TrEMBL record:
Record domain HTH asnC-type: where: 3-64
InterPro entries for this protein: ArsR-like_HTH (IPR011991), AsnC-type_HTH_dom (IPR000485), Dimeric_a/b-barrel (IPR011008), Tscrpt_reg_AsnC-like (IPR019888), Tscrpt_reg_AsnC/Lrp_C (IPR019887), Tscrpt_reg_HTH_AsnC-type_CS (IPR019885), WH-like_DNA-bd_sf (IPR036388), WH_DNA-bd_sf (IPR036390)
Taxonomic lineage: Bacteria, Pseudomonadati, Pseudomonadota, Alphaproteobacteria, Hyphomicrobiales
Organism, scientific name: Enhydrobacter aerosaccus
GO MF term set: sequence-specific DNA binding
A matching Pfam family: HTH_24
DNA-binding recorded as keyword: yes
Gene Ontology CC entries for this record: cytosol
Keyword Cytoplasm recorded: no
Keywords annotated in UniProt: DNA-binding, Transcription, Transcription regulation
SMART domains named in the record: HTH_ASNC (SM00344)
GO BP: any one term: regulation of DNA-templated transcription
Name of the protein in question: Lrp/AsnC family transcriptional regulator, leucine-responsive regulatory protein
Length: 164
């Protein structure tokens, strides 16, 4: 899907503030509300906007530990990779998993209430997943930057005429 400048401004504004009323969103991007709503609906229907979510500090939900776990697999056969990926997707403590280049095969972001819960996951689930050869865990001490609204900020449209 090719995004024009207005689509990019819509996405940027919604990533920063997902509950923005359509009238205010339209004003920010230089459209009238009806065409703005049509564009948002198209972005949703075409899957560019995947979903809306509330960003909550993990500690507020009892998550005191976050780990990044490097995973290496025994082999890279399609069967092994698919089985590992399916097992990872089924684990609620895994909030993200990335296939990587370099020394590791996957990088897994794990949330846990405490070290005991992480240990339980690592020893009884992760190490027993299909094809896992080894893991190496690093614990996040502090989030220096955590900006999930990653779209580049696009400045408010400079007092342009509304497009109808």
């Amino acid at each position: 899907m090719e995004l024009d400048d207005i689509d990019k401004r819509i996405v940027s504004a919604l990533q920063a503030e997902g509950r923005l009323p359509i009238v205010e969103l339209a004003d920010r991007v230089g459209l009238s509300p009806t065409p703005c709503q049509r564009r948002v609906r198209r972005l949703e229907e075409e899957g560019l906007i995947e979903r809306y979510a509330a960003l909550v500090p993990p500690a507020a939900m009892g998550i005191q530990l976050q780990a990044l776990v490097e995973v290496t697999l025994e082999d890279h056969s399609e069967r092994t990779v698919e089985a590992f990926e399916a097992a990872i997707r089924a684990r609620p403590e895994v909030v993200a998993c990335y296939a990587m280049t370099g020394d590791m095969d996957f990088l897994v972001h794990v949330f846990a209430a405490d070290l005991g819960q992480f240990s339980e996951f690592a020893m009884k689930a992760l190490l027993r997943m299909p094809g896992v050869k080894g893991t190496r865990s690093s614990f996040i001490m502090q989030a220096v930057k955590n900006d999930l609204a990653w779209a580049p900020s696009v400045a408010k449209a400079p007092s342009q005429k509304r497009v109808r």
